[in-house]
# Entry
Amino acid sequence: MHENCPHCNYKFEREPGYFYGAMFMSYGITMAEALVTFIIIQIFNLNLSVDGTMGVIVAVILILIFPNYKFSRILWMYIFTRKEGNEPTTK
# Structure
């Protein structure tokens, strides 16, 4: 991953441990993809053995591992970073 955004120069790197929770988000996204893959296999009745079904699920997980990693970090930053225009108002 880049240290800074090439477009707006936003610094992605934070203090150590900042993206620890993104690891759990990545795990949840991966499990959701595995579940969707299993449901698609069942809907289309592909008649795969247990090993074949697991092979397809593992292949999908391996193909999407890097996009999931980046997407989970983006989600984590979005959730825990102040957005411009959302500053607290003082009266």
About this structure: The chain has a mean pLDDT of 87. The CA atoms of residues 23 and 72 lie 7 Å apart. The chain has three helices and no strands. Residues 20-80 form one domain.
